[in-house]
Amino acid sequence: MIVLAAVLLAWISPRFDDAIPLSDRPVLPVAFGMVMAGIAYGLALPSLIRGSLDLDHRRSRSALAIVLGAGLLARLVLFPSTPVLEDDFYRYLWDGAVTAAGGNPYAVAPADIAIGPNDRLGIVVGPDASRLLERIGHAELRSIYPPAAQAAFALAHLIEPWSLTAWRAVILLCDLATIGLLLALLDRAGRSRLWAALYWWNPVVIAALYNGAHMDIVVLPPLLLALLLATGGASVASAASLAVAAGAKVWPILLLPLVLRPLTADPRRLAAALSVFTAVILIMAAPVALAGLDETSGFTAYAQTWQRNSALYPALAWLIAPLLDGFGWSPDFAGLAARGAMAVACAAFAVAVSLRPVADAGDLMRRTGPIVAALLLLAPAQYPWYLIWLAPFLAFRPSPGLLLLAATLPVYFTAFYFLPRGQIGVFDHVVVWFIWVPVWALLAREALDGWRRTRPR
């Protein structure tokens, strides 16, 4: 089924070519197909895995070979596909060219580049680059992607300049590293390797990486390596790897309290790990800080104004606005206040999860997942490809509510049906609730069931 879904997506993808008007693209059939793939994944796969846990060693190895082979085949099927409703990769290719040429992608926005034989960043802008520049989203903003991500973009450019195939090859390398580290972590936690199917067969992950070509996979190898090192007691190396992960996407900083929790009884090792983490973060932050964080910075724009596919954030901002007005403050700051409240809630939750001593590798992995899930559930921007962050941790804590995200997040793509028809408000105010209410309801039921099991009798 997962391979068939990939085949169908690859087959229909040419109808999403940039030359085809958005209103003429088969948005709803694709969204429906992805929802169906997510439902099959969430309903069938956990039961299939549990039913395979008692297989003998030989059959278990055969089952794992099927898992890995089918997941790899689905990925390769999508390698030559036309990206469906995606354009982020244009920015990756541009940033990779700038970085590979020794330039600073945080210094100049693509829209500021003069087309000609030479540009301000020291790279040649030929026909391929000119066409790419025209398609970069938010070209007026300087790059938002941290330095570790820029290294991955530059690697793709060195393999083949301006090539989506080369970038997909880098994605595959990161993905293979991720599944390898995930299998090692499952071994360390004493769980069957078959649980890795919850990552390797996740249809949203496969489509987002190999059709959409999103860069979020870059964060997973250093992040999972940090967790693997932490379970082996290599605290300083773990802190360094976690800092590299934060240099790909900033959010892994939330995991620092949990990763360093075992060191609270050893102040010297804790100080060493914190020093290494801080040093690596400062090195990563230097090119961003030197370029400045004004209104043209992608980091500033994302932190202050980015909002997409969220039901909770607009509702919270709407509730906060009259409170601000009542205190004599401008309701225009309601969005920033809502962002601040969500950021504080995420940080507080991460610290609360880290308070109890870490018992073993399984305990570490089971507690990491909820922190990443809280980030995903509370973020003002909740794109489907953000599920890539959470997917490996479902192998350790297969929450039905979180598994449901594979079925509900693809509803996001229906926004591109309403957008060209001037009806985006239908999505923003109505459809988006169908994405998140079922997930929150199922998570609430899980929490209630857990409380009932643990309450004193």
Break the fold down into its secondary structure elements and pairings.
Layout lengths: L1 H11 L14 H26 L4 H22 L9 H13 L26 H9 L11 H13 L4 H26 L7 H4 L2 H8 L9 H12 L3 H12 L9 H5 L6 H25 L6 H8 L6 H15 L7 H21 L6 H18 L8 H4 L9 H4 L1 H4 L6 H4 L5 H31 L3
Category by helix and strand content: mainly alpha
Q: In the residues, how many domains can be counted? A: 1
**Outline type:** globular
Q: Number of helix segments?
A: 22
Unreliable stretches = 115-119
Encode the helix/strand succession as letters: HHHHHHHHHHHHHHHHHHHHHH
- Between the first and last Cα atoms, what is the distance in angstroms? 45 Å
Biggest beta sheet attributes: none
Q: Roughly what is the average pLDDT, rounded to an integer?
A: 91
Strand content: under 5%
Helix content: 55-70%
Rg, alpha carbons: 22 Å
Give a count of the beta strands, DSSP E runs of length 2 or more. Answer: 0
Short description:
With 457 residues, the chain is mostly helical. It has helices spanning 2-12, 27-52, 57-78, 88-100, 127-135, 147-159, 164-189, 197-200, 203-210, 220-231, 235-246, 256-260, 267-291, 298-305, 312-326, 334-354, 361-378, 387-390, 400-403, 405-408, 415-418, 424-454. The chain starts with a helix and ends with a helix.
Can you offer a commentary on this structure?
This protein is mostly helical and 457 residues long. The protein has one domain (2-454). It is built from 22 helices and no strands. The longest helix has 31 residues, at 424-454. It is globular and about 60 Å long.
